[in-house]
Structures are given as C-alpha cells and as structure tokens.
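Dear colleague,

Thank you for sharing your sequence with our group. We've completed the structure prediction you requested, and as agreed, I am returning the results in plain text so they can be pasted directly into your records. Please verify that the sequence below matches your submission; if there's any discrepancy, let me know and we will rerun it promptly.
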Amino acid sequence: MNKRKISMIIALLVATSMVISACGAPATAVPATAVPATAAPPTAVPPTAVPPTAEPVTLTIWHNWGPDDAKGAPLKTIFADFMAANPDITIKDEVYVDSDIPLKVETASTAKVEPDLVFVQRVGSPLSWTDSGVTLPVNDYLTEWGLAGKFTDQAMSDYTQADGKVQAFPLEGYRWPIWYNTKVLEAAGVAIPTTTDELLAAAKAIRATGNQPLIASNDGMGVYLFSLILESAMSDEEAIQCMGKGDWTVPNCIKAVELFVQLRDAGVFVDGVEGIDYGGANTQYATGTVAMSHFGTWEDCAAEVASVVPYVQLGGFPLPEGSPRHAPVYYTGFSAKGIWITPNGAAKSEAVKKFVQYIFEPAIYARLVEQAAMVASLKEVPLDPSKMNPNCVPPLSANAEVAMQPDLFLPPEVNSDFTRVSTEAFTPGTTAEKILADLTAAYAAIK
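Please find the predicted structure tokens below.
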C-alpha cells in the first residue's frame, strides 16, 4: 500500500473518531470557539420561559335586573363587553326577586357557597351583613381601586355605618315620589294637591268622574306609602323617635297614624287597595283611570306605564295642617342598589377589582343612566341626551321636600313586623289604636 493511500486511511479514521467522540460528549464539553467560522449558525431554539397566562376566573353575581327591568338590557351589555375585554374572567349572573336575595345570600353564606358579588338594596337584613361577616367593608378597596371621592356625598353617607365602615359600593340611587296623572286630575277639575284637605277634596271629585284616586301595591311595598304618610305629619327627629326607637307615644306619631286611617276611610286609596300587588298596581295605573300612584323612579321607563307618561307630573305627598314640613314629602337616596363583596369575592380580589373599576368607568356607567333613567351615584357621568329613553317621566317638581327613608333608621329586627302592621293598616276597619298597639308590641320585643 503506498504512502499516499495509508495517509488517507489514517485521516479518515481520525475524523471518524472525532465525530464519534463529539456525539457521545455532553454539549458543554465543546467550547463555542471550537465551531469553525465557516460553519452554519446553530438553529434558534424557542425560549422555554413563556409568560404565563392569567388563570381563568368565574365571578358569580346575584341581582334582580332581569329582562323585565329597564336596567336589565344595559347591564347585560356591560357584562358582555367586560368579558370581551377580560377573556380570562367569566361572569355568571343569576337573577332573583329583589326581596328574596337577602335570605338566599345569608343561607349560601352559612354554607360558604355565597356568590362573589351581590347587587342588592341596603334595606332590612343587609344592614347587618358587614358586622356578621356575610359581606366585607369596602373602605380599603375604595382607596386602592381609585374610587375614593368618585361618589356623591349622600351616596357615601347612605352606605356608611356609624362606626365608619362602608358596606358596599353605591350603584343606584332612587326617587320615590307620587305620580300625578294631570289628565285625570283635570277631568275632575282639581289641581295637584299640596295639603291633605285638598287631597280629600280631590279624591271625592275624582271618584265622581268614575276614576280612582291613589293606588299603591300592598304586597310589602305599601309599607313605604304608609311610612311616607306618617312622615308627612312629623319631623325627621320625631320619625326616628317612634319609627327608629319605638316610642309611639310621641304626639305627632299618634296624629300621623290617625291621619293615615282618616285618609283610608275617606276613600283616598283605590278600591281594594289592601289586596293589590305590585303588578296589579302597574296594570291599573297604566289604564289611565287612576289619578295618583306611589311609584319609584325604577318605573320611569317601564313599557307598561309608557302610555300615561305624557300626563305625569312627579311630586311629594300632601301635608296635613300643622305639619313641621315645608313642602310635600317624598323619599330619595342611594340605598336602592349597592355592589356588596362577599368573602368568596374577596378571594378573587383581582377579578373583582377589574369588574368594579369597569362598571364605574363614567362612560360605562352612563349606559345605565341613559337607557334606564337610573339615578346616578357617581358625581360625574357623561350623558348623551340623544340616548336617553323617551319614555322616562319628567323631572320631580321643585315643590317637594325629602323625608328620611325609614330603612335608614328602622331596626332590622322589627322590619318584618313593621311591614306586616303597615300592610294590615290598609284594610278597612283597622283602627288607629290597633295599629299603634301592634307597632308598640313589635318594638317591645327587641328592647
């Protein structure tokens, strides 16, 4: 074998040995400088540390703004748009009758399966939720989430306990005036009454035309008309004394109950008022044959009363002679709806934070005001008049005075009994003495 052939064989064996050694050696054994300059660059390897995506979260929200409520449609769009902007968060909303929500929440809370957020009014048992742990105070959230100072002073006051705890984010305000159908009044030849003497005369004239005077639902809602009539005859301080503390010996409290009975027996309420529920009151008022109704602003855009809206003037309840009030009274405030955070919701604080910040963005919140005539709790809301619902009723008359809503001082322990007594008060034959005795007994049980 010639020298040239031997040399080629040796070279081939050395090269093969190097390849075998390279294949068996760890990658770190070959320094980077060992790669020839003329070699092809190594293939790029995708990075292994990919930023993790957010864990999916489901927020469960309980509320009563269903398809039959003017706020139901805009709320649905707010939910949908929020989820589109936050694909890692799913909103599961469940709609219940408003009055059923507190007990459902409390029952679920006992089993620790409560919803994350609750949209409910600050009335009755929710007044004690923060102290009992059913929901959490939102003081820190207001500051940390940039919402401090965004709400009206009254809205914040209505949700703040005596110890300074803010129970919920104020979502919805309300006005609860008397709806005067001016067409029915004019047919009877009477004006909107401002005194109870004028109201008594108007009721008689209205009945003479075949129409009915004042309607109210008495399925638990009548308590507010009962309370409003009582408060028309007393000051806020007197109302707190008897309705808040249970002292029904205050002279004006006694006169107030006697006034209610006088109006009832004189035919101021529609026939059969003691058996009318909320739906029935709406239906009857929508016929245009009822002069007055105690409706709240949540009815402003309701389709069933749209036909009478052109004739509606909102005002307060007339005053009796000697009343300490200065003008007909009505209720207003922000306890109609708040966003309450439960312990389960607090465990999902980042998702809850995003949702709460979103719904209170002025442009988002404006949808509820524009489309449903909701009374705004935010100080500044950019509104487009062209988007306002044309079925919304006119503004409240300036000739009215705000009375303190009993929900703000009525003890939760007597709420059910107070409602029961007021409901019975609409029944003909129920005397002022019986009403006062039953109220006194209801408060005595908690003293």
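Summary note from our side: The chain has two domains: 57-175+334-387, 177-332+405-444.

Kind regards,
the structure core
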